[in-house]
Amino acid sequence: SSKVLKTDEVTSSLVQSExxxxxxxxxxxxxxxxxxxxxxxxxxxxxxxxSMKIMTWNVNGLRALLKLESFxxxxxxxxxxxxxxxxxxxxxxVKDVEEVKKALSDGYDHSFWSxxxxxxxxxxxxxxxxxxxxxxxxxxxxxGSDHDMExxxxxxxxxxxxxxxxxxxxxxxxxxxLSYRIEEWDKTLSNYIKELEKSKPVVLTGDLxxxxxxxxxxxxxxxKRSAGFTIEERESxxxxxLDKGFVDTFRxxxxxxxxxxxxxxxxxxxxxxxxxxxxxxxxxxxxxxxHDSYILPDINGSDHCPIGLILKL
Amino acid sequence: SSKVLKTDEVTSSLVQSExxxxxxxxxxxxxxxxxxxxxxxxxxxxxxxxSMKIMTWNVNGLRALLKLESFxxxxxxxxxxxxxxxxxxxxxxVKDVEEVKKALSDGYDHSFWSxxxxxxxxxxxxxxxxxxxxxxxxxxxxxGSDHDMExxxxxxxxxxxxxxxxxxxxxxxxxxxLSYRIEEWDKTLSNYIKELEKSKPVVLTGDLxxxxxxxxxxxxxxxKRSAGFTIEERESxxxxxLDKGFVDTFRxxxxxxxxxxxxxxxxxxxxxxxxxxxxxxxxxxxxxxxHDSYILPDINGSDHCPIGLILKL
DNA sequence: CGTGCAATG
DNA sequence: CATTGCACG
Lengths: 313, 313
Hints:
2 copies of one chain form a homodimer. Chain A is of the alpha+beta class. The first copy, chain A, is built from 7 helices and 14 strands. Chain A has helices at about 5-15, 60-65, 75-80, 95-105, 180-195, 230-240, 250-255, and strands spanning about 35, 50-60, 85-90, 110-115, 125-130, 135-140, 155, 160-165, 200-205, 245-250, 255-260, 280-285, 290-295, 305-310. A 6-stranded mixed beta sheet of chain A has the order 4-5-3-2-14-13. Chain A is globular. The chains hardly touch. Chain A binds a DNA duplex through loops.
């Protein structure tokens, strides 16, 4: 049309189409750019390159996702053709695993479900794979706490690495569970990974429930005491994972790029792109093999979006 | 079309349009007929006859009903132009009464809400009136039990009678609450009514949670130990209400007519008309004034349908 | 089967 | 503003 848009209108029009390509921060610091999956992904690997595509997604209730005709994990499979999909917050009960497996099984014959047995329909992780893993373990097997009761970890062993799908406990309203999160969970997870590393490299994926740096959150100043951005969690993230050699693959590939993976339902913030990057793919020793670490912000059905990792093998 | 229907098809076609005009009983006893609101209602009262139209409806959650654009209590008002509407199972909390009042107030300026304070969002009765009552009382004020905690009675005093909107406790799965229902509730209610009668006639309305006779239920043989049709409840209904002079107005007007007011969601039984008559308008001394006691089975939005009473005054 | 709550995020 | 389970019917 011939209508001339004012600056504000241009912005909101962009926001309506692809919000994640717009930097919603009022004062973008340094030279930050917004992540754009259409322009910031590398060319495909040459034909015949041995590789593996891993995706991870906090689905916030898998049953609800499967109800949406517009989308299902298998439609994601058609679009992305991944080899392995890690899920968090499946909210699946042990008794419903078989039923859910059927709904998913379309070429992905191997799936492993870690369910909460303390609170039903809470938390829950899974690994869905087209490749049969060498072994699978549920929980950490390490002593100390609720971890292994809440279905927060499942590990699949592949030929050249271990793959962990984990859902790190939220510190909760009023930071009720902050000390548990830091002292018990993060440390146990760190020790668990160290154990695995003794035999093979580890790819750690999932909802790590921490926006590590200011660039990873919409309003850093306003969230200093919010679960997921407390200084305690951020330092724990560094100490327990990064300092042990793990790599935030997205950040390594895209320094200075703002890419969110979580919006939350509470304030309708997906369309204004005001949120957090919580879902990492963080891998040790495999960092050199990463071809692409990417975000798919236009996939709906959850308050998180899926992210992917392409590994050269 | 030119297609010739078989008998079965004709029946199911009737069932699809107006199930309540079809007697779903396999073996209708005696000469029972199905209630048909289009053919079994008397002509309107002559212009100028002083009368009052009272309706009662177990809405199974008023908030949900108000969400349905297709229908609301006020649309019922437009269609039926009642003077007073009694509600049961409003499931309204005390804190939400004002909000709900606003949604309803369209000519009905006087409404009175008895809410459960023991279990929030449970039970709950109301009287919504275009006429201002002389007085209102919540509960029975009689000692003994939970009654007055669960918002199961509200009474409005009009010039020539008391009007009670009540939601009689369901005896529950496994008849857990049967003895409470009989020994405590029914007796207290009966005593309460007797007290009121000392000053004025009483019109008792609501979900009385009892199918009194075999004609009032789809499958009498199969429900002898079902809450609402136990011999205990049926005898209590007779002893505490009918034997004290109260009249089942619908039954008096329509002997041998099968009219249900409750279907339940559990087995999709509204379309097959397989259910119960639970919602009575039972009045003492006013029985001679009843012009019409009727059922509106085509009103959706609840697992009960509304029923009405037209009183000549 | 459907309501409304509670816990959780 | 969503999810799931739960009590209740």
